[in-house]
Amino acid sequence: MLALTGWLLFALVAPQSGAEPARIFASSKDCRECHTAIYDEWQDSHHAVSWTNPAVRLLSNDFANEDCIDCHAPKPIFVTGIGERVLPRATRRKEGVDCISCHQLPTNEDGSPGGMAGSIMSKRAACKPVEARALTQPDFCSACHNQHKTVDQWRDSAFATGADGTKRQDCLDCHMPYVGEGEAQHRTHRFAGGDVLDMVKDAVTLQAAAVNGAWSLTLTNIGAGHSFPTDERSRAVDVFWRPLSETPGPWLHLHRIRSPYRSEVDVPDTLLLAGEARVIPVTTAPEGAGDPVPATEAIEVAVFYKRSPYWLDPAKPDPDNEAQLLHSLELRP
Ligand code: HEC
Ligand code: HEC
Ligand code: HEC
Ligand code: HEC
Ligand code: HEC
Q1: How many distinct structural domains can be found in the chain?
Q2: Residue 4's pLDDT band (boundaries 50, 70, 90)?
Q3: 327 and 286 part of one domain
Q4: pLDDT digits (tens, 9 = 90+) for 27-73
Q5: What's the Cα-to-Cα distance from 34 to each of 125, 202, 332, rounded to whole Å?
Q6: Do 128 and 216 lie in a common domain?
Q7: DSSP notation for 200-261
Q8: Are residues 36 and 183 in the same domain?
Q9: 121 and 212 in one domain?
Q10: pLDDT of 80-104, one tens digit each?
């Protein structure tokens, strides 16, 4: 009888003694001790550089434009509230969009730490994860990513609606796929996007055909779950052609895919919607002007991607040196 009571007592107390006390986390560096792989992936991502990124510092005048702080060094999303405008934080801004921004839950009513939003509940772990499905939903990313309408574009696409029998895929399916095996399996925090050229290449296909005796191209957005290219204002995609020869001349511009900044009133919005197939006739001058290039001529065509939309000399774009090649084709009669 005594032995049994002892065992019962042990059973009641054991889980408690294995639990770590809740910690208050002052920096995302503190997560690394236990979540090393995820921390290292995140450190390699654009979320980790959102405060230090030279392109952002330049455009925000070193954050003298305070409106820019909000999403680039935010307070935790769950603290401001899903669906609410994010708010700027005052401390450790260098950590950018960090672990705490995405995972920290509001403090409990009794003043104890609220724990971390996750897919499981664990009273034992020091970070006290709590199951929070909202973390996996596009509305969560929307807090910051609808600035450039990426989430609205996804909502209108077959990836969200399942139209034409398309398999539903959301932000996490494409940007946080599972990596690692067994115990180590987790959703990657590398958040690959336009900074990973292979991902951009896989987003579109380039096809060519002779139509009514002239060359014609079709560029199709097959893989971006939203308009292409995303972060439409800074990014641009350009289609070029040139006669095929052993000493190739300069590339001749055919078509630009881009959404302009508000100040650029003369620039049309030409983003390629999710699933859209755009026909681009090959002509001697850009955007359909000039004469059709006959399919009796051997030519080379190419699609290039730019992380910044401007050419050094707009009259003579030099994509080989100022952009990244996505696809090219040699067309022969
Ligand atoms: C708190 C705001 C915020 C939230 C929430 C957020 N992001 Fe981001 N994200 C950013 C910022 C800011 C950048 C750009 C940082 C930079 O390049 O300086 C970025 C960059 C990215 C990039 C890489 C873009 C590139 O330049 O290559 C991807 C992909 C991405 N986010 C996906 C997501 C997904 C998916 C979610 C939802 C799970 C999400 N983000 C949630 C703010 C946020
Ligand atoms: C831009 C938002 C964002 C940032 C920044 C972020 N996470 Fe996550 N994290 C998520 C989302 C979304 C999930 C997926 C949740 C799910 O599948 O239920 C996730 C999942 C996780 C998981 C569970 C992993 C798994 O798949 O089993 C852990 C642990 C985690 N994050 C820790 C961290 C740590 C540590 C950091 C900082 C180094 C961090 N996160 C930064 C959004 C973020
Ligand atoms: C002392 C170790 C330790 C530290 C430090 C720590 N965690 Fe955890 N974390 C754990 C353990 C253990 C689990 C539970 C894993 C399990 O049971 O699968 C966990 C689980 C999680 C989960 C849920 C995982 C899931 O599968 O959904 C998230 C999210 C998370 N941690 C985020 C964080 C963040 C963000 C930080 C830093 C602010 C952090 N953790 C710091 C040990 C730690
Ligand atoms: C079907 C897969 C797919 C889905 C779903 C998807 N994306 Fe993407 N995303 C891509 C591909 C491919 C790229 C690279 C091509 C590009 O930049 O458009 C990309 C690029 C991006 C970029 C990078 C932009 C840059 O400037 O580097 C961001 C940010 C982004 N997506 C956010 C999101 C968010 C937020 C969601 C959910 C609403 C989402 N994506 C849904 C495939 C997807
Ligand atoms: C509502 C949230 C939000 C605000 C406010 C915001 N940004 Fe961003 N910013 C983002 C997101 C999200 C991305 C990544 C989007 C993508 O790549 O599609 C981004 C990306 C950028 C990039 C591209 C970085 C690169 O690597 O090319 C620059 C530059 C930038 N932002 C500058 C600014 C400036 C300047 C301001 C203030 C005028 C500002 N941002 C305000 C959310 C925001």
Answers
A1: 2
A2: very low
A3: yes
A4: 999 999 999 999 999 999 999 999 999 999 999 999 999 999 999 99
A5: 10, 34, 58
A6: no
A7: HHHHEEEEEEEETTEEEEEEEE-S-SSSBSSSTTT-EEEEEEEE--SS----EEEEEE----
A8: yes
A9: no
A10: 999 888 999 999 999 999 999 999 9
| Inside any domain, residue 219 | yes
pLDDT, mean of residues 174-183: 96
Q: Is 126 in the pocket of ligand 3 (CB under 6 A)?
A: yes
Residues 218 and 125 in one domain: no
- What's the CA-to-centroid distance between 217 and ligand 2, angstroms? 41
Residue 157 lies in a domain: no
Does one domain contain both 183 and 213? no
Query: Is residue 8 over pLDDT 70?
Result: no
Residue 189 Cα to ligand 2 middle (Å): 7
Whether the full predicted model's pTM is greater than 0.85, yes or no, is yes
Ligand 5 contact, 80 CB (< 6 A): no
**48 and 104 fall within a common domain:** yes
CA-proximal residue: ligand 4, atom 20 (nearest): 193
Distance 38 CA to ligand 4 centre (A): 20
Ligand 4 contacts CB of residue 153 (under 6 A):
no
> Ligand 4: which of 171, 172, 304 to mutate, most ligand atoms within 8 Å of CB?
171
Atom of ligand 2 nearest to the CA of 141: 1
Query: Are the beta carbons of 22 and 115 closer than 8 angstroms?
Result: yes
Residue closest by Cα to atom 31 of ligand 5: 56
Q: Cα–Cα distance between 261 and 158 in angstroms, integer?
A: 27
Answer yes or no: is 255 within a domain. Answer: yes
Domain that holds residue 217: 197-331
